[in-house]
Amino acid sequence: MSGTNLKRFVISVAATELVGGVLGSALTWSSLQSWYPTLAKPSLTPPGYVIGMIWTVLFFLMGSAFYLVWNSKKGLRERSTSMNLYGLQLLLNLLWSFAFFYLKSPFYGLVEISFLLVAISVTIISFSKISKKAAMLMIPYLLWVCFAAYLNFSILLLNM
After folding, report:
1. Which residues, at least 6 apart from 139, have a Cβ–Cβ distance to it below 8 Å?
2. Which has the minimum average pLDDT: 72-81, 87-96, 149-158?
3. Which domains does the chain have, with CATH numbers?
4. Whether 17 contacts 107, CB under 8 Å
5. Where are the beta strands (DSSP E) in 47-133?
6. pTM for the complete prediction?
């Protein structure tokens, strides 16, 4: 990996971890300590430390996928579209933390995660036109967000 490629890889992963991990955690921290433990949750809810580890790995995979698209030799227009879609889904990921945890609203979280799932799917389709590997790296994220949507929906129902 050349110096430029390494720099792009580090930026791709670090930016994703920063937005998803650091900013997302900042929005959730106080609710994780006070509000979230009081909620009834479905039996499939994993422990918090497992969720944190999974997100860290997913953000790494997502950042790696972004790097493959950014570093591709495909046309600028295709890459720009894909990179913008990636930014949109990353923003929506952050907004889910805001809606669910910061606003303490499983309802708004469920509405928002629905948009997130669409954005991830569209991003994967766009990535697949540039790099099949990048698209594949996004699949675990899509599956995890589907599971998160199930948890969100269940929490909404269990706490009405």
Report:
1. 124
2. 72-81
3. 3-158 (1.20.1260.100)
4. no
5. none
6. 0.94
Token pair for residue 30? 């106080």
Q: What is the pLDDT of residues 15-45, one digit of tens each?
A: 999 998 898 888 888 898 899 999 999 999 9
Confidence of residue 98 (pLDDT cuts 50, 70, 90): very high
Are 70 and 79 a contacting pair, CB within 8 Å? yes
Residues 58-67, buried b or exposed e (16+ Cβ, 10 A)?
A: bbbbbbbbbb
* Strands annotated E in 4-160: none
Q: Is the distance from CB of 142 to CB of 61 less than 8 angstroms?
A: no
Alpha-carbon separation of residue 54 from 1, 104, 143, 144 (angstroms) = 27, 22, 12, 9
Could you tell me which residues come within 8 angstroms of residue 46 by beta carbon, excluding any fewer than 6 positions away? 54
Residue 157 has pLDDT above 70, yes or no: yes
